[in-house]
Write a structure and sequence with these properties.
Helix 2 links the parallel strand 2 and strand 3. This protein has a domain of about 210 residues: 3-Layer(aba) Sandwich (Rossmann fold), CATH 3.40.50. The longest helix has 21 residues. The chain contains 12 helices and 15 strands. Helix content is about 45%, strand content about 15%. It is α/β, with parallel strands linked by helices. It is globular, with a radius of gyration of 20 Å.
């Protein structure tokens, strides 16, 4: 099977490229990080440096491809809207148009449940629940990116979308690797009551979901599917577990969500005035995600895709910690 993977230098795209290569697929990995592309080439995976906002190059890359996995994105709770728009919306439009022009058999798109988030808890969110006003430029542009995929599907491109929640595991650069340094600094307070629950998704379970999407029945095309481990955990209980594992002091200072929200809003106002627009140490989006409960209903993926998480949160946590300790 000939496949093209955008964002192959990212966490999900890289894990997918390696899995498909080991399965014997003919993989072409696209990305912007030259060093990570070289790592893929060392593993005998065909790799090419490319910016998906460059439509012409993408058109050529999609020639004779059977399945395209679009994993590339600019994910961040903060940043310039135009940068997000170019990467997430224009990039997705270019991928979809390149797939249509080259008669690609299927596009599998990686979206995000960040578009569900708002400044309150949401439990068992379904794919067709009304979407709130986006709380970040990332969420806003991912909604627009999904609309690009919807347009392409309406025009005849077989496409399917997943929304995987809080992906973690060996190779992660976002979830635990951003949390642990804050714990080491001793400056991370408990935001909210400390009882909120969240969904997590182990990386290999996400790759499983992508493979299921590649061969899913025709009635799944045009749809979006929530993906998670389906076993919500107490966020601050997981933080306590990490602290115990690494010999770190568990946070005892508490800040209410309202207070943290106001501080984050003030920081955003100040940092927005800085010409380089650096990310504030705290954003309202981050505060909401840390303080509130958010879980997804994954029944549709289980029913339609036959998705069953193979690696539990506990096992995934152990695998991550083994990797993290080797890396340190």
């Amino acid at each position: 099977m000939k496949t093209l993977i955008t964002g192959a230098t990212g966490f999900v795209g890289g894990a997918l490229a390696r899995r498909l290569h080991h399965m014997g697929w003919d993989v072409t990995a696209l990305g912007r990080n030259a060093e990570k592309l070289k790592q893929l080439e060392v593993e005998n995976i065909r790799a090419a440096q490319m910016d998906i906002t460059e439509k012409g190059a993408l058109m050529s890359a999609c020639k004779e491809q059977e399945i395209v996995f679009h994993c590339a994105a600019l994910p961040s709770p903060w940043g310039n809207f135009e940068n997000f728009y170019q990467a997430n919306v224009i990039g997705t439009r270019n991928v979809a148009q390149a797939c249509r022009a080259n008669n690609v058999a299927r596009l599998v798109y990686v979206s995000t449940p960040s578009l569900y988030f708002e400044y309150q808890s949401r439990m068992n969110v379904k794919e067709d629940d009304p979407l709130p006003k986006p709380i970040s430029n990332y969420a806003a542009t991912k909604i627009l990116a999904e609309e690009e995929v919807d347009k392409a599907f309406a025009d005849g491109l077989p496409a399917i979308t997943i929304r995987p929640r809080a992906i973690f595991g060996p190779g992660d650069t976002v979830i635990f690797p951003r949390l642990i340094p804050r714990l080491e600094s001793g400056r991370l307070p408990i935001i909210g009551d400390g009882e909120n629950v969240v969904d997590l998704t182990y990386i290999e379970n996400v790759v499983d979901a992508l493979l299921l999407c590649a061969e899913s029945p025709a009635h799944t095309l045009g749809k979006k599917y929530n993906i998670s481990n389906g076993e919500p955990v107490k966020l601050w209980g997981m933080v306590k577990k990490i602290c115990d594992e690494l010999g770190l002091k568990f946070p005892t200072r508490k800040i209410s969500h309202a207070a943290a929200h106001h501080v984050a809003a003030a920081l955003e106002t100040i940092y927005a005035l800085i010409p380089t627009h650096p990310e504030p140490p705290l954003t309202r989006a981050t505060v909401s995600m840390i303080a509130h409960s958010t879980t997804l209903d994954v029944s549709a993926a289980k029913r339609d895709l036959k998705f069953t998480p193979r690696v539990s949160v506990d096992e995934g946590y152990e695998r991550f910690m083994q990797w993290w300790k080797k890396m340190k």
